[in-house]
Amino acid sequence: MNSPRQAYLEYQVSLTLGLHTEGFDIPAIVADLIADHDTIQSVDDVDSDDYWDVVREHDRDTSPSDQYRCRPQ
Question: pLDDT (tens digit, 9 = 90+) per residue, 5-60?
């Protein structure tokens, strides 16, 4: 069962992914963020480049044409 922190972080990650949430393993993203940043309370606590690197690692639908779709413009 997810802790309140994990649930909140999963919610925040889903917001950053917008309409693309189905293509990502959100629980795995959160697990990596917590492992790398033990005191994380918000995705805003993580450097943007580090955050998007973790997100890209859990992209289930990466193809050459959309490899940067998880990065905000």
Answer: 999 999 999 999 999 899 999 999 999 999 999 999 999 999 999 999 999 999 98
DSSP string, 49-64: HHHHHHHHHTBTT--G
With CA atoms as reference, report the closest residue to 54 among 18, 16, 22, 19.
16
What is the band of 73 on the pLDDT scale with cuts at 50, 70, 90?
very low
- Cα separation, 13 vs 65, whole angstroms: 23
DSSP structure string for the chain: ---HHHHHHHHHHHHHHGGGGGGB-HHHHHHHHHHH-TT--SGGGS-HHHHHHHHHHTBTT--GGGTTTTS--
